[in-house]
């Protein structure tokens, strides 16, 4: 039987055909991700390793830092930009900056020194709550926007204009800020769910609204979506934003970032691949996440989707039995799909059968066979009996001790 006969996919039972529109990605691990109060700012060697892994995953751009933050930020941004240039990586660079000329000047200097274009991501708060807290007037915000965007564009930097807290901003404010930025030379607008306020419906509505502003301008301007995880909706909001017309989605490895983090880039890639929006090699996704974890000191939760330790492990008898029967048929795809909604092989993983108190004898037999050990009745009984006395999955050493 073919795959379509074995799985009826309700995800596509009552939906429109998948769009063929290309989706772009911007990786925020090395800037917004490092704003987490719990991370370690990695040494430059680790940042370079992560940059190459982003490139291998087909990620389009990487935010390589905020050089306005100080000398170390300048040095790291320059080194990362040089790596892109020297290694002729496909990934391109951008840098964050406030809508302040003093923040933009270091980006210009690095771009000219290294000899590559670096997108300037000039940001300013847009919600009234932020205006009220900061004592900002709309006139001040519009003036800062125009001056910053014009300055960057005049120095031949591509400009993405970023409005923080867009998902809580008034439509009139959004329209005024974006029209000003477009007229000043911005080629991208970044819609930000800075505090993770949005729902999927809200994200889609906002993107459609911003699209109408772009269409009214008559300019060729792309739209980015930058989401956070405060309500746990970072991934679905990113998908909703793309489906509503966003061109580029932002995320960070493992979702690291301020508070509970950014939308996780790894999960966005996984879901868009499984939804048919992407068709690329994601076998290095595990390495990307492990490197980010090691570099920043943020552990990967054991139950984290796809790359967590338990993502493709099972010790439950009835579940393992189905996987084992599929393996016995010699069908790798079947074994990967019968008890998993995510194909492990697609992301450089494999299904793993363990032995624990909820296991059946088929778990034991399969474990022994995989290791070239004869599953004699005595061995199987010893391991099975030992597992039933325990309150956790057995380690390999514990199983070998049980055999005696």
Architecture overview:
The structure is a single chain. The protein is α/β, with parallel strands linked by helices and 404 residues long. The protein is built from 16 helices and ten strands. The strands form two sheets. Strands 1-2-3-4-5-6-7-8 form an eight-stranded parallel beta barrel, surrounded by seven helices. The longest helix is centred in the middle third of the chain and has 18 residues, at 200-217.
**Ranges with pLDDT <50 over ≥5 residues?**
none
Element pattern in H and E = HEHEHEHEHHEHEHEHEHHEHHEHHH
> Helical residue percent?
40-55%
Radius of gyration: 25 Å
Largest sheet: 8 strands, parallel, barrel
Task: List the SSEs and their pairings.
Blueprint: H1 3-6, E1 24-27, H2 44-56, E2 61-63, H3 71-87, E3 92-98, H4 101-114, E4 118-125, H5 128-134, H6 138-154, E5 159-164, H7 171-184, E6 188-193, H8 200-217, E7 222-227, H9 234-244, E8 248-251, H10 265-274, H11 285-296, E9 313-314, H12 317-328, H13 332-337, E10 352-353, H14 361-370, H15 377-388, H16 396-403
Parallel strand pairs: 1-2, 1-8, 2-3, 3-4, 4-5, 5-6, 6-7, 7-8, 9-10
Helix pairs in contact: 2-3, 2-11, 3-4, 4-6, 6-7, 7-8, 8-9, 9-10, 12-14, 15-16
